[in-house]
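Contributing new complexes? Match this layout with nicotinamide-adenine-dinucleotide.
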Amino acid sequence: MANVCLVTGGAGFIGSHLCLRLFDQGDHVLCLDNFFTGRIENFNSRYRELVTSGRFEIIRHDVIEPILLEVDRIYHLACPASPVHYQVNPVKTIKTNVLGTYHMLGLAKRVGARILLASTSEVYGDPQVHPQHEGYWGHVNPNGIRSCYDEGKRVAETLACDYHRQHKVQIRIARIFNTYGPHMAMDDGRVVSNFICQALRDEPITVYGQGEQTRSFCYVSDLVDGLCRLMDSDYVEPVNLGNDSEITILQLVETIGRILGRPLRLERKPLPADDPARRRPDLTRARTILGYEPRVSLEEGLRHTIAYFKAVLGDSVSASHPQAVVV
Ligand code: NAD
Ligand code: UDP
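Output block (do not edit by hand):
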């Protein structure tokens, strides 16, 4: 059955893919965004079809203010996700996480909507348990430079659980691990977008610290599949979503270099404070309860992402590196 779906942060990286997926399955999509890191260009390729369908609306709004909309489902993604972006205005980041989630839970309660919160692997902080399972409470600095995001998301989870216990709101909590793909912003600061753009511009690759820290990278279509499965389920506890293939940051550089067919120059930079040393999701719960399985390999996902950034960066790159991308 088609639903009226509100996607907060809908013009952002993950949100734009989610909006398109919901639209394609026949839902009526309300894409709400304050356009801090989101971009209307993320809908360029489908814009005419979307606006003429009568099933796609864009609402410019900041979730730190309340809003009343008649909807069946709320996918609450609004929040900058890159450390560079969420640290620009940390007070705003925590307001977005706390007040924004409070307003969306209030809306869900008022109109009887089901709400999915986009939480994060950052609730585990710099984890002392590996891989991270949902029962682990985390190892989080409460007053460091990442805290506005990490602790903000932890409070957002608390709020969601209390609205469920106290007001019977139907909640879903997705703990999203590092996700990448087309529609990431070029100046985003996250490792995949940074490395690909640097490589395509023939700039040195900025490796923070020794590059031995690990992450597990999930391609965006797999993540969106997990979000939809979770929303459709009746499961209210948090669920990890991501890909459990773990690599070091130096291995990520090697993989991008292999796809581009040339070695990449490195530039070492200091490791940022509170940067987690290891991260890999335990996906047992997602597999068992949702039948979730990430399907896109890192190499395949990187090829799609490189092709996207090559198109965005345009002719200047292809002129200086005609051999740069193999897709
Ligand atoms: P993004 O920055 O591309 O998207 C966030 C969107 O939220 C943007 O469109 C931005 O303009 C919007 N936004 C920010 N503050 C807002 C506000 N106050 N009111 C309305 N809109 C606002 O980031 P993303 O990677 O697409 O992340 C989406 C969600 O997924 C975030 O909640 C993030 O915490 C979560 N998440 C992402 C990752 C990842 O690896 N991409 C990992 C863990 C969690
Ligand atoms: N990183 C890096 N160079 C960059 C950007 C990031 O070495 O240009 C490292 C960063 O220190 C971290 C990892 O890559 O260890 C992932 O960083 P990102 O900001 O993408 O995500 P997060 O730290 O939130 O997982």
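Reviewers usually confirm one structural detail per submission. For this one: DSSP finds eleven helices and 13 strands in the chain.
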